[in-house]
Amino acid sequence: MGTKDPLLSNTPPHVDAGFAGTLKNIQLNDLIQMCCLSASSLCMRVNKDDRIGTIFIVDGEIIHAACEGLVGEEAFYQILGWQTGSFESIEVSTSPERTIHQNYHFLIMEAARRVDEASLLSDDDSIPSEDVDKDRLRVLIVDDSPMMRKILSSMLTTSSSRIKVVGMAGNGKEAISLIDKLSPDLVTLDVNMPVMDGTSTLKHIMIKKPCPVVITSNPGEGSSRAIFNFLELGAVDFMSKPTKNQDILVQQQKILERIQIAATANVGKFRIPRIPKAKDGISGSHPTEEACRSLVVVVSGPGGHPEQMSLLHDLVPSVAALEGGVVAVQSLPPLFADAFARYLLERCKCPASPVDKQTPLAVGHCHVGIHGCPLTVTTNDGIPSIGPVDAELSAGGFPLDRLLITAAETFRQRLTVVLLSGAGTGEQTGLRAVHESGGRIILRERVSGMVAKPLDAVVEAGLADMEVKPVDLVKAVHDGLVTKT
């Protein structure tokens, strides 16, 4: 299909029709994704040597493609198989008959899969490692989007001279080969990729050559369960991919912090959580509407998700027997609060609910909070409750501090804080309030945990009352509450 196609209008060159220019070092699939995301309508004519292909996009949907006698999906895949060339967008006067019915996500993924099958393990994205500075954190980025790989690489290397991106891969099979070749200190891993997806890749990494893995994805309702599964398979942490509608410098700083903490993980200490199969109903717990007399706050960070899952299964009913409740704080994006509560209910039969409004702290309940969403404990007519803090009130300081300070004021010696692997405590203002009010701070045993560095700071500050093996945590909490109530 050439320029004489009747579907293409011959707009005079003097008519204002936007900008003309050149985009360098960008892939065709990224351009198509941008057009589809913006719900554009256009014809993209692509030239490769003496070959010409056309792709029609109408209201953000790919409806037709033609190339060298082929039409429909096969023509689309052939065009996207060209790794270099030129393109121009042409105004569409009328839409052609639809020959493509798959959505653009599927089409782009399938095109990438075919390219990878034709030329697996290409080193085009690999970065030479001969002169790598061994004092720097060596990162391998795995993502099927060339644009996202470059964005992440730029954010990591420009924000810290202590990080070096030693390689990039577009699918799991490439990643496994590069891990063998480059031995990175840390891998950022996309969830959905052609050839080999994130789940299979993570399993291969943990079996063949374990190293810290941070999952990168755009969080959504459909992805939450997959993220929890990744964390239970050995991924150290999860972080959202950077987005254009948020402050890029803030995102960059958060990504850097998570990468640096995750890199300290000793993945050899990872253990798949052994959660007993729950019987029908709630796992031994008997939640009531009665106000709790004691409270346990369980804080988890990078590397601590499997520990938290295993602990809560037995801790919630144990605390309920002593007229207590539990608050579980997880280091996940705010969108995951509701999904995590449902996951706890389904996976552990734990009576969990997200703290999205002022809620009474009741016996036998597990209230789910997120690190980045500050919570506060208040008392009304002797009934303790927990709820989110207004954005204006939460400005400044570490989010966990307000929760611990207000919980200490309410429960005093009947408050227990359990810190699991990777649990961040900021400047420890909240922990000091717990300590001074007579509450207890219990650490899971650092020597057997994946991420011990944040817990080291608590011990150095003299704020830890006990350091306990994971199997003894429930008993330690229970025995302490018995003496305080």
From TrEMBL:
Pfam families, alphabetized: CheB_methylest, DUF4388, Response_reg
Enzymatic class: hydrolase
Record-level Gene Ontology MF annotations: phosphorelay response regulator activity; protein-glutamate methylesterase activity
Gene Ontology CC annotations of this record: cytoplasm
EC number per UniProt: 3.1.1.61
Modified residues (4-aspartylphosphate): 190
Ranges where the Response regulatory domain occurs: 138-256
InterPro entries: CheB_C, CheY-like_superfamily, PatA-like_N, Sig_transdc_resp-reg_Me-estase, Sig_transdc_resp-reg_receiver
Catalytic activity field: [protein]-L-glutamate 5-O-methyl ester + H2O = L-glutamyl-[protein] + methanol + H(+)
Domain CheB-type methylesterase: 287-464
Keywords: Cytoplasm, Hydrolase, Phosphoprotein
Keyword Cytoplasm: yes
PANTHER family (alphabetical): PROTEIN-GLUTAMATE METHYLESTERASE/PROTEIN-GLUTAMINE GLUTAMINASE, PROTEIN-GLUTAMATE METHYLESTERASE_PROTEIN-GLUTAMINE GLUTAMINASE
Protein's UniProt name: protein-glutamate methylesterase
Annotated organism of origin: Desulfosarcina widdelii
